[in-house]
Amino acid sequence: MDFHVKDLSLADEGLKLIEWAEMDMPVLRQIRSRFNQEKPLKGIRIGGCLHITTETANLARTLKEGGAEVYLCASNPLSTKDEVAAALVKYFEIPVFAIRGEDKETYYSHIKAVIDKEPHITIDDGADLVTTLHRERPEKLDKVWGGTEETTTGVIRLKAMARDGALKYPIIAVNDALTKHLFDNRYGTGQSTIDGILRTTNRLLAGSYFVIAGFGWCGKGLAMRARGMGAKVIITEVDPLKALEAVMEGYLVMPMDEAAEIGDFFCTVTGNKSVIRKEHFLKMKDGAIIANSGHFDVEIDLEDLKSISTKVRQIRKEVEEYTLINGKRIYLLSQGRLVNLAGAEGHPSGVMDMSFANQALCIEYIVKNKDKLEKKVYPVPEEIDKEVARLKLIAMGVKIDTLTPEQKKYLSSWEEGT
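-> C-alpha cells emitted (418 positions)
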C-alpha cells in the first residue's frame, strides 16, 4: 500500500484514540452501520484533504464501510496526529499521506499523491485539494464527479472559482449546513480555540482583555467561551451588521487599531489576510499573546512581525517570543496556524459527529445524483441537514413534538386570520 506517515509504530496509540473519539460520534456510527449493509459507495474512489484527527479517522472508516477506496492527506501542516495517521494505515488499510510539521513542498506532494489516485469524489477542508487539482492536474478533472467542502475559507474560495467559471465539477458546501456551522463553527471552534490557547500558554483568562477579530459563527462561539472564562471580550469587525450584533450581545466593539493597545490576548477568526499587522504589533502591550483560529496562516501578518523584531526565540512548545524594535515582547502561538488544532486537538468529537455525518451523507448524495449536478457550489440538501439533526437528537435521548394535521393545514393556508 502506498502511504507516507511518520512512524507505523505509533499505530497502537492511534487506534485507542480513534476508539475514544468513536464513543462520542453516535450519528456517524448509525450511518456506518447502514453503509456497511447497503454499500452505497462501492467502487468509488474518494480523495480527502482533511485534518488527520481521530474524528477524520472515523469519517474515513465510515466511507470505507460504504464500499469506497479512501485516500487521505493533511489540509494543514500542523494539524496531523501522527498516531492516527499510522493507525489508519496499519489497522484500517486506508492510505494516508500526512506528517505533522511537514514543509510546504511535502504538504503539496501529499496532496498530489491523493490526486494521482484519480478520485471520483473529493473532500476538502480549505480547498487546497480542489485548487491544486484544477491548476496542476487538470488532466485528472474528467474523473471527478463532485466534491464536498468542510470550512468557511474553502467555501469562499470555491464560490470565487464558480463565479469566475473556473470550477470544473460540482461541490456541496458542507460548511453551510445548519447542523455544521451553527454547532461545529460556534461550539467546536469556541471550545477548541480556548483549549489551544490554554494548553500552549497556561495563562489566566479571567480579568484579561480578549480581542477577537471577526464575529462570524466561529467568532461568536469563541466570544461566548472567552466571556465564560471571565475575560473582557473585545470584537473587531468590518461588517456593520455583525458589529451591531456584537454590541447587542454586550461585547466591546472597536477597530483593531484601538484594541491593539488594550488586549492581552488576540485571536483572529476572519478568513482574511493581514488582519493583525505592523501598526498593531507596535501598539501592543509587552507580553501580548496572539493566535489564529482561521484556516490559513495569513490572518496574522508574519512578515510584518519579523520585519519589526530584533530577536525571536522558542520559549515554550508552540510559543515563539518576538522582541520588537521598541523593546516589547509579543508571543505568537503555533506559528500563526490554527491554534485549536496545532496547539490542542481540534473540535470535540461530539460536534464533529454532525459535521462528518453531513460529509458522509452528502457524498452518498453526489454518487446518486452525479448526472444531475452542475459545475457550481451547492448547499447541503435540507433533508440531509434535518436527518443529521434528527439522528443527533435520538442519540442524545431528546424527544420533540410533531405537528398535528390541523397545525399542518394552518401553516400551509392563508384563509385563517385574526
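The CA atoms of residues 43 and 68 lie 6 Å apart.
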